[in-house]
Amino acid sequence: MPEPGTGSGQAEGPAQRAHPGSDQGANSGPAQSAQPGSGQPSEQPRSPGSDTVSVTIDGRHVVARKGEMLIAAAERAGVFIPRFCYHPRMEPVGMCRMCLVEVKGPRGFSLQPSCYLAVSDGQEVVTTSPKVKKAQDGVLEFLLVNHPLDCPVCDKGGECPLQDQTLSYGPGESRFVEEKRHWAKPVPISDLVLLDRERCIQCARCTRFADEIAGDPLIDFFSRGDRIEVSIFEGKPFKSYFSANIVQICPVGALTAAPYRFRARPWDLDQVESTCTMCALGCRMVVQSSGDRVTRQLGMDTDPVNQSWLCDKGRFAYEALEHDTRLTAPLVRKDGELVETSWSEALAAAARGLEEARARGSASGVGFIGGARCTNEGAYAWSKLAKSVIGTDSVDAQVADGLPAEVLLGLPRATIDEACDADLLVLASGDLREELPVLFLRIRRAILDGRTRLIECSPYGTSLSPLAEVSLRPRPGAIVELMDAILADDRASDHGHAADASSGVAAGGAAGGGAGASGHLGAGGGAPASQIEAARRLISEVSSSEPHGRVVVVIGRSSLAEDGRILAEAARRLAQALPDARFLPALRRGNVMGALDMGMAPGVLPGRVSLDAGRAWYEAKWGKVPAKRGLDALGMLRSAAAGELDALVLVGADPLGDFPDAGLAKQAIDRASFLVAVDAFRTQGVECADVVLPVAAFQERSGTTTNIEGRVTRLAPKVTVPVLAWPDWMVAVELAGELGADLGMGSLDEVTAEIARVAATYERCTPEALAEPGSRDGIVVPNGPRDVLLPLDPIAVPGIESVERQGAPLRSGTASDIGGSDTDAGSGPPGSGVSRSEAVPGSDDTSASGAGLQAPPVLGVPAEPLDVHVPPTDAYSLRLVAPRRLYDSGVVMSRSPALSPLAEHLVARANPADLAHLGLASGDLVRLRSATGSLELEALPDPGVREGSVVVPFHSAAGEPGVRSLIDASVAVTEVRMETTS
Amino acid sequence: MELYPEKRSALIPICHIAQAEHGWLTPEVIEGIAELLGLTPAEVRGTASFYEMLRTEPTGRYLVSICTNIACMLDGAYELLEHAEERLGIAVGETSSDGMFTLEESECLAGCDMAPCVQVNYRYVGKLDSAGFDSLVGELAAGERDADIPPHGVLIRTPRRAPRAVAGAPSGGGRSAGGEQAASSGAAGQVS
Ligand code: SF4
Ligand code: SF4
Ligand code: FES
Ligand code: FES
Q: In terms of CATH, what superfamily is B62-141?
């Protein structure tokens, strides 16, 4: 344990955070993002300085950060102070008084709440005196006065901080003999969460979460005194994408989640750490099971990613695992019917079909769609199978819902932390709350805390609009013009020095002049000139400041009715104009970033290299790579619909349910002569397949996954695979074997190791490195791991571990925590003190096959503009905007009993002026007609929607006709007519 | 609302105005206030329900508060309370069906010298015995006390210059009496 004096020289932690974004390579050092353990994530000092004070806690000398709360400083020094209301990710409120300690003041020692008292130099603190003990006894006795003590029937029993702390710190006996307060129990406060007010101890964790973190303050304390209750306003349930987080952080059993209620007892649960793959954010979570069934998932406090929060979709999606449309055995089509068969027969059938297709045409007669549901290992194996064994480059993990891989992978990447700390954040994406919910939480907090400023650029208002300094509403299809208007004119403006500076707003935008849209001021994508001017001013203010302000651009698809290349071109121009800007892709599909990194896109090979640049390297490693660039998903479906593409392999993707142009998808699937589906569920695509190969789904798999920032984390299996399903990588390896090729990978670890060996960006992601405690938060490619601190709030992550943690906190023992005066004293697990900063990329593993070859260069920002033709607007039509919603009719969502009822029914939103112009009133039934189809639905006015466009969510609740019938993939933007149905 | 740098700070004054207008803070009124201030109805109700004198439950034209704290208790407060229940035909906490009276048992009203102390709409009506209570009820019902006891809801002695109606709040609260003139004449009001 730390001795007085050993704390000196520990102050370097925060000082190293001067410019976390200034050099990507520098991130691999011990420069921990200074948040863990600070207790005040919202008050990160950005500038260096000796912001530390020293305090004495129980006679022990502790160095703490200025402004941090005493409770946090003590905890880092190994002194656990009991608490209920304090949560390190939220503002302290000092409501429960459990954390009282004695602090010396001018008039001697007095009791003070340590969660509400900032450290100050020379402070003397005692946490275990008789006076403190008496206060703790008193607080607990009071808390229990009205507590029902129904632990035997309470979900929280066995992992309850109130139970545990009563046992450790309480009086053991109550003097209260009167009648306790009674409430009806439990009452639902949303579809997912139930409230038992008798158990509530009024800690305000739930209400603060709703307000501070989620921004949905739909629950509050009503009344006061002993009648106080947490409540919703009548008729206004706690409808939030994040509602179940309050169940996780409630320190008693007052809040319970409908899907978990009465399903298990904590001591029966077994748990592993894993990663959510419901979206591409990759929230870290604990998966718990009982009797081989997943019973609960809890957010892990992973500082750089989800900071302990999960969205409800990610949290409850596990229910789909048990859906009766799970595929449990391979199927082959016999006499028109899909019948169960053995793996050997199914693989043989698949191989035969693919061989025939290859024999009929060429290798490029076979296409692979999907891969974003795979693990990295699965994606790599499929990519290797497709590109080297079959020899086709027509592979695409994105189903026309992403961005061209060559552009996306070439953009300089930002981490989530960098986005939250950027001097300027440009959001060129849809509503993040719908796309990557927890990223929305992070960015919302960052803006509210004044850590970053926002320019928003989306054709409709989003959840972040109220926080944006500038909101640009480009006409669908016009974002390139808008970017030009913002960037191009700036070089003509009078910032003389910007022109010669290599960074700053330079003239790079001019290089894109060849593309369809040229940028004249006033064109501006139809955004008002004043807004464009404001955006331009903000950008030049940030980029001309000294040192250069950091600009991060979040790019994602705000509409699936628009060609993704338009956005890619806008991003490319931005990257050229602002060479220091970094990009954070807001793509949605679970492991889409991993799949792209593994080469599951036309024109690229694993490790973010282009087909041409990587040819020599991969010919040496794989033996063969495709001769020419293949087709993307749209191209493959078109080609199949035209009868050119013979065989299609669906790797966990279902164009019939997902592809924006429903008509084209149907034609393609109908015409493809041979269809293989690799899936976990019986989807529409599976029903049409000739061979169906069942695979393991989320909580059944091991492997790795890569999130939007390039963070590679490990998935851990918790439950067993249904009967005959296989891991995705194994299916590819066996199918290759059937085709007469040996992929050379016999186990998962061998696949992981091969990825690290051949894909230079992944070279640090060896199975061994990933297994180290220091990689608990994953490894950011290509930067390497950062230091990790285990969960900040020992009572915020209930479960088996937390029970142990209500003593002194565990830490990983890496050298980042300031003030933890014991960094070398070995309080962490042994073996975790790896010095990661010393690993030199590419130093020693060029010795394998292909010796002497240089690893190919990683993709950069393309110089060539993407040529997309956007037709001029048509005065009689509205442009269709089809954004994704979080609660959709996706494969998993629609199969999860708790979530599927939450999908909303479909409405069309349009600007009130447009509706008035058409003589329509709010709620009128309208018919939307496009070149490909028509759709009837209710129309609602929404002033956030740009004039001249109409917004219809991409997914609809299952069973409803979707907007996909309107989308026409043959044009860059879809125009629709809106008319009354009568 | 311009008086406050943060909109939210106007919440309690607005509740006062709304209550003066509507007698009590009906759900519709709460939703109206929330919309006006950019809050959720839950936040408005959370704040309003904290304060005893902001009423979030139906309240009659006259809120009769009878103190049962120690001095008053010794001087027959419980007997008076029982009598009041009988006379008004309602239990403590209830409102008479004609919407005229709400009966409330209260803690010390700082009028121990008038024990058992009674207030109507927070205006002292002094030490009362059963007969006194009955005649008070009669006077109130007949509108004879309108000059010194404004209808429930009016808390503020000096009316603020503020819009008469809270925007968005339908005036469906039932009680339409003009709060202002009553309040300005209510010099006896003991209000916060
Ligand atoms: S419901 Fe739980 S989290 Fe909310 S105030 Fe009560 S004890 Fe705290
Ligand atoms: S935000 Fe994405 S990764 Fe995080 S819990 Fe939700 S679905 Fe999962
Ligand atoms: S008062 Fe400090 S933890 Fe509640
Ligand atoms: S005890 Fe009744 S007014 Fe004080």
A: Glutaredoxin (3.40.30.10)
Any ligand 2 atom below 6 A from CB of A127: no
DSSP A151: G
Residue of B nearest to A222 (CA): B46
Tell me what the mean pLDDT of segment A913-927 comes to.
92
Contact A647, A673 (CB under 8 A): yes
Determine the structural domain holding residue A489 and report its residue range: 407-584
Is B57 an interface residue toward A (CB < 8 Å)? no
Domain assignment present for residue A262? The answer is no
The rounded percent of chain B whose pLDDT value lies above 70 is: 80
> How far apart, in whole angstroms, are the C-alpha atoms of residue B159 and residue A58?
56
Q: What is the model's pTM?
A: 0.85
Taking residue B167's Cβ as centre, other Cβ atoms within 10 Å add up to 10
Partner-chain contact B40 A222, CB within 8 Å: no
Domain map (residue ranges) of chain B = 7-57+153-185, 62-141
**pLDDT tens digits along A828-839:** 333 333 333 333
- State the Rg of chain A over Cα: 28
- Average pLDDT rounded to a whole number, residues A70-79: 91
In a domain, A661, yes or no: yes
Range among A316-320, A811-815, B172-176 with highest mean pLDDT value:
A316-320
For residues A635 and A727, state if they share a domain. yes
Closest CA to B98 of B133, B60, B65: B60
Cβ-based neighbours of A391, under 8 Å, separated by 6 or more? A358, A363, A624, A626, A627
Of ligand 2's atoms, which has the minimum distance to the CA of residue A315? 5
Ligand 3 shell residues, CB under 6 Å: A 83-86, 94-99, 113, 115-116
How far is the C-alpha of A123 from the C-alpha of A118, rounded, in Å? 10
pLDDT classification of A62: cutoffs 50, 70, 90: very high
Q: Based on the domain organization, do A571 and A665 belong to the same domain?
A: no
Give the residue on A whose Cα is nearest the Cα of B53: A223
CB contact under 8 A, A233 and B30: yes
Residue-wise DSSP of A792-851: S-TTTS-SHHHHHHTSSPP----TT-SS-TTTTTT-SPTT----GGGPPTTSS-TTSSST
Look at residues A206, A266, A307, A251 and name the one whose alpha carbon lies nearest to residue A83: A251
Nearest to B27 among A217, A223, A234 (CB): A234
Interface pTM (ipTM) of the complex?
0.80
Residue of B nearest to A226 (CA): B50
Return the DSSP state at A646: -
What residues of chain A lie within 8 A of the CB of B47, using their CB? 220
Count of Cβ atoms closer than 10 Å to residue A691 Cβ: 27
* Chain A interface, best mutation among B7, B29, B49, by max A CB count within 10 A: B49
Residue A808, pLDDT > 70, answer: no
CATH number where A477 lies: 3.40.228.10
Ligand nearest to the CA of A96: 3
CA of A882 from ligand 3 middle (Å) equals 46
Which segments of A440-523 are extended strands (E)?
454-457, 470-472
- Sole residue written with tokens 């060479």: A579
Multiple choice CATH, B7-57+153-185, 1.25.40.10, 3.40.30.10, 3.30.70.920, 1.10.10.1590: 1.10.10.1590
Domain final residue, candidates A550, A584, A618: A584
Residue ranges of B 17-36 with Cβ closer than 8 A to chain A: 27, 30
Contacts of B40 in chain A (CB under 8 A): 216-218, 220, 233, 236
Sorted by sequence, the CB contacts under 8 Å of residue B52 that are 6+ apart come out as: none
Whether residue A367 sits in one domain with residue A421? no
State the CB neighbour count (10 A cutoff) for residue A859: 22
Residue A1, judged by CB atoms within 10 A of its CB (0-12, 13-18, 19+), counts as: exposed
Could you tell me how many CB contacts below 8 A there are between chain A and chain B?
Answer: 41
